Amino acid sequence: MVDLVIRGGTVVDGTGAPARRADVAVAGGRVVAVAERLGSAVVAEAATVLDASGHVVAPGFIDIHTHYDAQVFWDPRLTPSCYHGVTTVIAGNCGFSIAPTRPRHRELIARTLESVEDMDVEALRAGIPWDFATFGEYLASVGSRGLALNFGAYIGHTPLRLYVMGEDGYERAATADEIDEMCAVLTDAMAAGAMGIATSILPLHHGADGRPVPSRLASREELEALLAAQGRTGRGVAALTLGDLDATEIYDMQLRAGIPFTYSALLTRPDGSHRRLLEINEAGWARGARVWPQVTPRPLRFTVPMTNPYPFNVWEPFAALAGQPLEARLAAYADPDWRREALARGRTDGFALRWETYLVAESQRFPELVDRRISDLAAERGVTPLDALLDLAVVEPELRVACIVANDDQAEVAALLTQERVAYGLSDAGAHVGQLCDAPQATDLLGIWVRERGVVGLEQAVHGLTGRQADILGLPDRGRLLPGHHADIVVFDPETIAPGPIRRVADFPAGSSRLTADQPTGIRHVLVNGTPIHRDGVHLDDARPGTLVRPAAHSSATG
């Protein structure tokens, strides 16, 4: 018996094959037929028939880089991803999962997430049930509450260190015995369904009290031991956030570990360093390595309050203020000596010094300055851009400044998006919620880079958002519209699909605010495991057909 039929659409099946006109039949949560025209008897027996005339019918999009680890408990719809055709999300990226966590470290984990991912501590306190300690218990807790989307998660290196080492995980390298224990905990997590180990050595990542996150203190021996432990399971993918590690070494490490790697992020930079990373990637693949740099169609744009200006944390003087009382931060901002030190020690790699991209985004005290560039204000006042900004921040600490820190060169972004050995990632959905909202990555890619600019072909874009992601993660029966696969499906209008506006709302626990993108255009139907969560342009808020996803053993073909 057929439960549901999607009729009259153009199927782009996620394999990269050419689009074709076809109907899709679903039964028991899986695709049972994809045919040019289903017989009238098949259609007649279906309980639900969805019209897809003039629309593309594709596998649901898979977002491999989210931070929904905590939000999933108070927002099982996983907004705003659910509005953009996403049917599967992977959390725990950058090594910042919330399990495993011992009861005595819950507050420390919350303060770490506050600093490194701009998560409101009060929202975390109110929203996380903390009925778990191990990673397996965490997945069971998530799964027991109902999900609109499919949900998978990495085990994070930062909580793993704290779980084994206690607060020493923030202070020192691990001993051999502690490394062995971490490997054992990781192995148990993989058996419970973890997508893999995620870690970060990015200098920007500072945790509680402004200290480097625990994963940054790991020795090479520790990191390689964890990767080897996951490699022995033959499952999932290791996710790395790079810092000072030579990118070439990542490919050697992958060859030793044997499971695929993905890293974030391969972004365009004014100095052209991204081209070198592409060369390293091609050379690594030629040697047999399977490393998938994450690229994104969206510029990396933050809107940050000067009480916590995240992009500035690459400067040690700013990083040292993390976790300090507001009074101490404002005193530093007002101190001419501190300003001179900040400028002297400022990074010159283009990450945080592109003042031409900085502008006043939100201000109650200076509404006339909204949308004015900081560099223009500085020129008018005869001061440096940093002085101009800090002068405003001392008067209005909650002033928000917008800046683009990378990935805004259209031609260079186009070159990245058309690569075959990259992954579409870095939506960061669930993190930096007060500072950015890149959850619309899929609708941005399809609306701007496929339709408007013609840079990426439709079939290539859909494959990159679906089948390729499933292969990387080890989800062999998702990501394609083929008989036997789970019926995760999105039906969209290729002529109107677009990400829509971003707006600020206060709908998180404890009245916490965030940016969201809940009004995309062109999404007509979305199915998760055969059940509609979005039908005829209307989101079905109470639908909970999602499930936990766990990686299967990799084959050499999917690697």
Features:
alpha/beta; 6-stranded parallel β-sheet; 32% helix; 559 residues
Radius of gyration: 23 Å
Please report the total strand number as a whole number: 23
How would the global form be characterised? globular
> How large is the count of helical segments?
19
Derived structural class: alpha/beta
Largest β-sheet summary? 9 strands, mixed
Uncertain regions spanning at least 5 consecutive residues: none
Distance between the termini: 35 Å
> Can you give the helix content as a percent range?
25-40%
User: What is the strand content?
Assistant: 15-25%
Q: State mean pLDDT (0 to 100 scale).
A: 95
Describe this structure in words.
- Strand 10 (197-200), helix 8 and strand 11 form a beta-alpha-beta unit.
- The mean pLDDT is 95.
- Helix 6 packs across helix 7, helix 7 runs parallel beside helix 8 and helix 8 (220-233) crosses helix 9 (247-257).
- The protein is 32% helix and 19% strand.
- The strands form 5 sheets. Strands 1, 2, 3, 4, 5, 18, 21, 22 and 23 form a 9-stranded mixed sheet that branches. It has a 6-stranded parallel sheet with strand order 9-10-11-12-13-17. Strands 6-7-8 form a 3-stranded parallel sheet, with no helix packed on it.
- It has 19 helices and 23 strands.
- The longest helix is centred in the first third of the chain and has 17 residues, at 176-192.
- With 559 residues, it is of the alpha/beta class.
- The chain is globular and about 80 Å long.
